[in-house]
């Protein structure tokens, strides 16, 4: 039951406060990762050496932080309240549901004001594609895609790894996810250097992504979501984003994917989902799907704790 309490408190605090506006540990971690990349990345070398350097950089970035978290948590093991407070703090710092909601609502409000430039700027803060030429429909589609995909990365992955491995687990997950966001691009600089970080992130997200897809399906149009997941997800480039976005699009009865530009290069992405092209109102629907899935996860954990306590 303490696990459910810890997760519920962290979710509530994230909903009330969001991410720290100053002194967020991930900002410091990003600086460390950038320094390691500057020191170790050598795009002019061969692929094997680049992969080795990227693996070393990832280990040097993640391992000390996880070990420090583990040691600190063990030192608090004898104090129930201190341990609880530490766990709530670590999970809160790893969650990003409120931040995701705030960014998505900023896009929605700009679209409602017919401020297309403002909407493009706002969506550009949560997606990596080129947003300068998007129309209102393209902005809405990109926002819904980001909410569904980042719901898995910024919320459910963190909850899953905290449930599996406590504070060290959620810290390892969040740092790995951050490295993937920094180095996981197929650019000449990162295609080999970021390979280890990208593969590790894929591995850590494999189960959470599919649990997220199942949650979206259960809370939306279930049959459509499961059908889209089964038939469309394998065509998506990312092995984890595919199930999440296909199931989410099917649950909402919208179409996602299609052409987009990344780092100045056009890329055609398979279509996901079914039904209508996303409109501004679908941003709210995608946010409700993520929020409802969080409630579902906590309710399932509470029922599991109650059942195991009486078993």
TrEMBL record:
Membrane topology (UniProt): Multi-pass membrane protein
Role noted for this protein: Converts cobyric acid to cobinamide by the addition of aminopropanol on the F carboxylic group.
UniProt pathway: Cofactor biosynthesis; adenosylcobalamin biosynthesis
Family: Belongs to the CobD/CbiB family.
Presence of the UniProt keyword Transmembrane in the record: yes
InterPro entries linked: Cobalamin_biosynth_CobD/CbiB
Membrane-crossing segments per the record: 52-72, 154-176, 287-305
NCBIfam families found in the cross-reference section: cobal_cbiB (TIGR00380)
Cell compartment(s), UniProt: Cell membrane
HAMAP family xrefs: CobD_CbiB
Keyword annotations of the record: Cell membrane, Cobalamin biosynthesis, Membrane, Transmembrane, Transmembrane helix
Taxon lineage: Bacteria, Pseudomonadati, Pseudomonadota, Gammaproteobacteria, Nevskiales
Protein name: Cobalamin biosynthesis protein CobD
